[in-house]
Amino acid sequence: MKLAFTPEENAFRDEVRAFFATALTPELAHAGRHMTSVYSSREHALAWQKILYDQGWLVPSWPEEYGGCNWSLTQRYIFACERARAKPPALSPMGLSMLGPALLGCGTEAQKQHYLPRILRGEDYWCQGYSEPQAGSDLATLQCSAVRDGDHYLLNGTKIWTTHAQYATHMFCLVRTGTFDRPQKGITFLLLPMDAEGITITPIRFVSGAATQAQVFFDNVRVDASQRVGEENDGWTVAKYLLEFERGGGASAPGLLEGVEDLHTFAEALPEGERSALTQRLHALTSRIEALEMAELQALAETERRGSPGPGASMLKLLGTELSQALTELQVEALGPYGLVHQPEALAFESNVAPVGPAAGLTTVPFYLNNRAATIYAGSSEVQRNIISKAVLGL
Ligand SMILES: Cc1cc2nc3c(=O)[nH]c(=O)nc-3n(C[C@H](O)[C@H](O)[C@H](O)COP(=O)(O)OP(=O)(O)OC[C@H]3O[C@@H](n4cnc5c(N)ncnc54)[C@H](O)[C@@H]3O)c2cc1C
Predict the structure, then answer these.
(1) Contact 92/37 with Cβ under 8 angstroms?
(2) Is the dihedral of CA 315, 320, 325, 326 positive or negative?
(3) Comparing C-alpha atoms, which of 338, 344, 331 is closest to residue 357?
(4) Are 184 and 259 part of one and the same domain?
(5) Looking at 121-125, 152-156, 242-246, 332-336, which range is the least confident one?
(6) How many domains does the chain have?
(7) Cβ < 6 A, ligand 1 pocket
(8) What is the extent of the structural domain holding 303?
(9) Are 272 and 119 in contact (CB under 8 A)?
């Protein structure tokens, strides 16, 4: 099924398309097309963020008074499709798509006034401190402790798998402030600067070769009590609200459909037998992605109606990440031996080194390896299925 746009919507699409064509510098376009992870480098993400901010298109879904666009759902969808087509660097989601909406929903006026403009201008770069070595899927068992000491909390413990902790200026985190009958109670949501005394950061290298995540240690770190979001011991409420935005609220189908198109183009150069086998599998994948597209449009409407994506966000997270893995698996298969090319020097912007084989061979396998984590972070697929069965299907 394809949506038909009105003449005004078509004009909007042309405007967005023209913007992407002129606003993306050659270096940013190169960075966006050669990503080896779902994250761009901090430098490229912030450079692209500034361009969107200056244009007023950085956070379309936020309320207008805080920088949102007041676009219709269709305009937001068109924007997502054009972004997928243009392939700019990825924006860092921790401030813009996670903490920002959480502060809008649960922060004090002072927190909103202080942090939201800084998030938009890229002055603060956030990381998310939830997981601990013994608390991932069962996040409520987290132990990193915060003890009240006058106007401060004193933090001790550790966080792990913290994406971009080594580049972040700030962390939003969940800490234990009490022990009650339920583990979800006694958790508090805090904001802290990463240069606070007592913080140590140790990067973790993954199978893809990149060290995008880190373990963070807290040794008597002082955090001002004004940096608490929500009530003490009630951080789980804030975390659940935020997780809905982490798991849903975006549109991954347009990008996946672009990836399928790229593979169709790649298939054209293959011998007949291989081409038709790949094309058949791409058609099957396209039907599944189009089903996701419809679900994402429904979720956009739901977010507009109730202010947050709701537990259905788990369904989008599950489908979006599993389909993105199905796509990267096909990309690796299609490349065959060229997937094994390791030529980082050919990846650099304005490199004089020609790739051995198809250019896609330079990034496909690193991205594939990195993307194996997509069905683990932000809650594994098994955990999403549990949530869907309880909160969506009522089983
Ligand atoms: C690349 C990457 C980036 C990440 N970024 C961040 C970040 O920025 N901030 C942060 O706080 N965390 C981050 N994480 C951590 C991530 O959220 C956790 O890895 C995830 O929640 C799973 O927890 P775990 O690793 O402890 O695995 P476990 O919870 O130990 O799970 C192990 C296995 O058991 C399964 N399982 C567990 N419980 C159940 C159940 N009840 N029913 C069925 N199966 C179950 C899981 O699905 C999984 O297959 C990141 C992780 C990765 C890999």
Answers:
(1) no
(2) positive
(3) 338
(4) no
(5) 242-246
(6) 3
(7) 128-131, 136-137, 161-163, 213, 373, 376-377, 379-380, 382-383, 386
(8) 248-392
(9) no
